[in-house]
Amino acid sequence: MNNIVKFLIGLFVALAFIFALIVAYTVAEADVNLKLDKNSDYHDELTSEQIEWKQWADAEWKAEHGNLQTPLTAEHEAEIRHHLNLK
């Protein structure tokens, strides 16, 4: 009976140690993956997303308004005139 208890305790300790190693490896691997940047020299996720949104917005504007320019507000017009007068 005493040998069985020692065996079960040893088995439990071994399994707990293996489980701890697996958890430590998983956490370390996740940390490394989080630190890696998705962007590279050949692919920039944020730039790609900005380009896609700009293309979508341009297509939507063209579908609704054709080749017309965006109308200027009075503030924008005043700012443009101000900068033109500075030159």
Strands, helices and their partners?
Layout: H1 2-35, H2 45-65, H3 74-86
Number of domains: 2
Helix/strand-derived category reads mainly alpha
| Rounded average pLDDT | 82
Order of helices and strands: HHH
Number of strands: 0
Uncertain ranges: none
Largest sheet: none
Helix content: over 70%
Strand content: under 5%
Shape: rod-shaped
What's the N-to-C terminus distance?
A: 99 Å
| Rg value | 32 Å
Tally of helical segments? 3
Summary, kept brief:
This protein is an all-alpha fold and 87 residues long. It has helices at 2-35, 45-65, 74-86.
Write a structural description.
It contains three helices and no strands. With 87 residues, the protein is an all-alpha fold. The chain folds into two domains: 36 residues; 48 residues, no CATH class. The model has no long low-confidence stretch (mean pLDDT 82).
